[in-house]
Amino acid sequence: MPRGCLRLVVGILGAELFLSRLSLLLVIAGLLIYFFGWPYMRAVFFPWAFLLLMIPLPSIVFNQITLPLQLLASRCASFALPLLGVPVLRQGNVIVLPAMALEVAEACSGIRSLLSLITLAIIYGYFLEKRMWVRVVLALAAIPLAIVANSLRIVGTGLLVQYWDPSKAEGFFHAFSGWLIFVVSLLMLYLLHRFIERFLPGKEQAP
Predict the structure, then answer these.
(1) Would you state the pLDDT for residue 5?
(2) Where are the domains of the chain?
(3) Angstrom distance (rounded) from CA 157 to CA 159
(4) How far is the C-alpha of 28 from the C-alpha of 4, rounded, in Å?
(5) Which pLDDT belongs to residue 39?
(6) How far apart are CA 28 and CA 46, in angstroms?
(7) Helix and strand counts by DSSP (H, E) for the chain
(8) What is the CA radius of gyration of the chain?
(9) Kindly report the CA angle at 98 between 184 and 90, in degrees rounded to 5?
(10) Can you give the pLDDT at residue 194?
(11) In this structure, how many other beta carbons lie within 10 angstroms of the beta carbon of residue 59?
(12) Which of left, alpha, beta for 15 (phi over 0: left; psi -120 to 50: alpha)?
């Protein structure tokens, strides 16, 4: 039995979804190489490798990333809000405002926006940029851009709570702000690419 198939079976029997999903891609790669050869695999390597991004992170890795992002977002918000006239007291991932306490929960950590933005940055770079180093820069830049955008979302929520209505921290406005900030992060990624094109032009061709 091929190793990829063996890993797939072991992952299914052990209820380890990450292993079984990853093994499925290895099986697909093995079948492509077996029936069509290495030249065909090289031709479709990017779409095959891109499928790795559809696999959710293992829970142990996801949890290790989420908590630091929660704390980082709460720190950034607790630093910015006093500059805008809102006194705060941060206790871990909880930001205590005069009007109410805001908890930067797991859903507000920005991990999903981060993964989505990295995915879109890779697609954007692959189709709209020929220089490999610029593609790498765009993919890596998605990380700080997503963190900054999520921090802005929390700051905006704090301002709404303090100066408008505490109920705006939940419901439609809370969900809409997530979509709006994600669009802003996409715009920042586009502006970064335009900046590189304008000030760092080049004729290097993609391999």
Answers:
(1) 57
(2) 3-53, 57-199
(3) 5
(4) 9
(5) 93
(6) 14
(7) 8, 3
(8) 21
(9) 65
(10) 95
(11) 10
(12) left
